[in-house]
Design brief:
The chain is of the alpha+beta class. Helix content is 31%, strand content 39%. Strands 1, 2, 3, 9 and 10 form a five-stranded antiparallel sheet that branches. The chain is rod-shaped. It is found in: Cytoplasm; Nucleus. Pfam families: SIMPL (PF04402).
Length: 245
Amino acid sequence: MAGYPVNSQCFASLRPAALMSPLRTDELENRAGIVVGQSGGREVHVSGSWEISAPPDRARVCIKVTSSKDTATEAKSSVQRRLEYIEQRLRLGGVSEENISMSKEFKRLSNTYQMEAEVYVIFSDFEKLQNICNTLVEKLDNSGSISPPHFYHTPEQLEKLRRDVCLGAVGNARRKAQEVCCLVGQSLGKALIIKEEEIKEWQGQTDSCLAVQSIQCKIQSTTAYVASKVFASFAIKGKEKNKNY
């Protein structure tokens, strides 16, 4: 997971009390300012931005097996043998039972019986996904098929991403405020207001990867990006000497 500050340039200004007034939000995007608050104390207003990304943490595949036989028993038995092999291979690959689900459908077509089964598997380890699917493609031959993996983010991962990007933006805003106070010989106090003004989310789809079906390109195209911008106001404690900030 990567994180880095955005719009980190800032400008500071000290103004006489009679001329000070709260700055509009759109004025604060790329600068910092020291103003007099409503209670008469001096404040430093800053904005901070941050952006982070995370690859998908889950992938889902569907393994399908089908058999058409003259009798119902033969059709069911043929599919069952393949299902047992699939389940065995998944267990040996470390896939837990809770990440495996199955559905079966039995049909009669003219003079034959058809048994069809689908096994849905969720992977959190993409290397295991490749190894298991490659083995099954070889062993099942024409009697089975495996869908391309569908990569996605769990709600828990997305929520953590949103929290982390907000904390990064707040940390960036505080560092800017501290640098401004240090520059003008002041000491940064406690936070008075912290407001998340904007949060953006998007996926990293690229034209070059849309035409390619490799797993790495699929992961890259479904990587989640989140950017946050915050406004923060901090109290100024006053001039301090002989102290490093």
